[in-house]
Write the structure tokens for this entry.
Amino acid sequence: MKKWSALLLAMALMISFALFGCSNADDTSSKDNDSAGTGTTDTSQSGNNEKVTMRITWWGSQTRHDQTLKVLEMFQQKYPNITFEPEFTAWDGYWEKIAAEAAAGSLPDVWQQDYQYISQYANKNLLLDLQPYVDEGKLDLSDVDQNSIAGGIINDKLYGINLGNNSLCMIYDPEIFKQAGVAEPTPELTWEDYVNVVKTIHEKTGLYGDENIPGNYFHGLNHYIRQHGPEYDLYSEDGTKLGYDNDKWFEEFFSMELDLIKAGAIPLPEVRNEIKTPEDSLLVSKKSAMIGAINSNQIVATATAAGRPLKMTLLPKAKDQVREGQYIKPSMFFSVTQYTKYPDQAVEFVNYFINDIEANKVMMAERGVPISAKVREALKPSLPDAQKQMFDYVDLVIENSSPIGPPQPAGHAEIDKLLKTLEEQICYEQITPAAAAAKFREEATKILSQNAQ
Amino acid sequence: MVNIQTVKNKRKSINKSDYNNLAGYAFISPWLIGFIIFTVLPMLMALYFSFTKYDVLSTPKWIGLENYKAMFTSDDRFRLALGVTFKYVFTAIPLRLIFALFVAMLFVKNRKLVPLYRTVYYLPSIIGGSVAVAVMWRQLFGVNGALNGVLSSLGLLDRQISWIGNPNTALWTLVLLAVWQFGSPMLIFLAGLKQIPSSYYESASIDGANGIQQFTKITLPMLTPIILFNLVMQIISGFMAFTESYIITQGGPFDRTLFYALYLFQQGFQFYNMGYACALAWVLLLIMGAFTAIIFKSSNYWVYSESKGE
């Protein structure tokens, strides 16, 4: 009898578990049905007032989170039928999360996109082509110049709407330059000048001349390579191989870094790697005269953290340069997922985000210089100093730039890691710049060809 | 004796034992279902993916043994990660066990406040694998960390150094973190120590054995089954260590702290080579299985079991 009662008890447990599970399952499935129902009516023109819930994801700082949430709220007031489920994180971990969601087929309806990743996701047909909406007039780009749109176009389709124009820059503290008796950098600064400036500041003040080499290991190298060939770029146009044919540029660039490290004029990677937020920056804490590698929209956060006037300037030019290395880059995009249930509403939101003047007044160009000329004009009178500097800087870059290279191909993340590893080995003299150049070519070529298959 | 006899009789009757088994399985079914859905199925799926080229964003493509071939023939970072992981496991785990045993010996005597100390010393393990501790470690051993604060106030620091970022020290800060998280093996040692009859020690001290002799002749042999258990569990967890290097060092500087699990994560979620990552995961499983098997085999020679003496 005992075992029978045991069996009964176990069955009762099982059944209760099953019931519990089922009731939950029922809930979710009925919810799914509901949303599927509204989805179908929404796509037809009549159902624009149906309740819609969309997911939206972005990365950024706390400032960006606060501002974006405010804009979402404003949008929802205007369109009460649309509700957002916002998800936001820092850059670290963002792409792991997106990849997992892509694999599970649950990408957010609208999500922030980066130039490094857009081609990868576009080529896998995960993004919605927005050009038809532009043609229909639902997405208004009439105040946007073609250059600001171009970054989002892949294979003649518009997969991302640029949220602001950006360019790499160097930020410096004019006060430290004055103390060291060094003239402030001009747009005509060359690499040789740069090395002298950094070394002199270090000798005169004992501070670091720069926090990092201009442009960092990746963009700096890319910048240097671009300057030395009209067709040069780190990657080839189709992204299946490296886009430069002479390892001399790699060698020269990192020899320069090693030289500065040995002189103590810039810090070792172990010091620089710990800089995670603007507050950590050595420039902010007055240990360095410059930040060599930072995007122009970051001037706002950096100036806020420093609480003292800072200036920004172009990356160095090469004496023998055949073209400008500097380029205007879309800071980030909004992409809409291919299989979203609410493409119209998603586009509606993106349209609002880039064109609405009140919304942009809340964000104050935190994502870079707005692409809409009308918005720029509206913001100009009320711009705080740092934002004004950024607007002027992007204007300066337009005069000193060449067109942006192709978006980074699949395999870029792995190559970026490879390059960082090699750079650190160079800095600790574990490998010579020449050997690193050869190794980089060999390994990167392998990675690119594997990803191209 | 009578009871044992009846049990044996029941075993013989197939029907009855079937009922028993059925009831047993029914009882553990919630766990069993979870185990199948969340452990067995994913493992089998990973096994399938390991034979494919799978970039997460599109459907997997069957490529046979290519992933495994690439791993063993042309992947430098795979070898590097293995090397780092072995180094970590073979330093951190013995040190942690020795330290855990040492602390357990201190706490085995029932002095005042010992229960409090036990709790306090166990705390790091509760929060051990967590992100919070990893972040704290970064604060302690970073350029502007507490350690550098102390050193520079003593005038011992002549240049800026980051203990977690310097190629010569980075791995050792992670080993130190592992040793500090000695709580759970300590608790198990403690339980083991309490099992040893005090009469053994009494008679040994009457015979004039000193502390060290008592430790080597009584404590250690009696504890070997517990050591075996701890060793196996800790080696497995050592091979799977991830959070430390992911949060504190990101595998850097130049892959000096590239733990195997971190490399696997990079391949899968950062480089989008999920098929390759799955192959890496299965190789790790085989390595851990091999180590466990070796330890179990060798246990015949060093683990003391009372039944053998009979």
Q: What stands out?
A: Chain B has 14 helices and two strands. Strands of chain B lie at 52-53, 61-62. Chain B has one domain: 75-309. The domain at 75-309 of chain B is CATH 1.10.3720.10 (MetI-like fold).
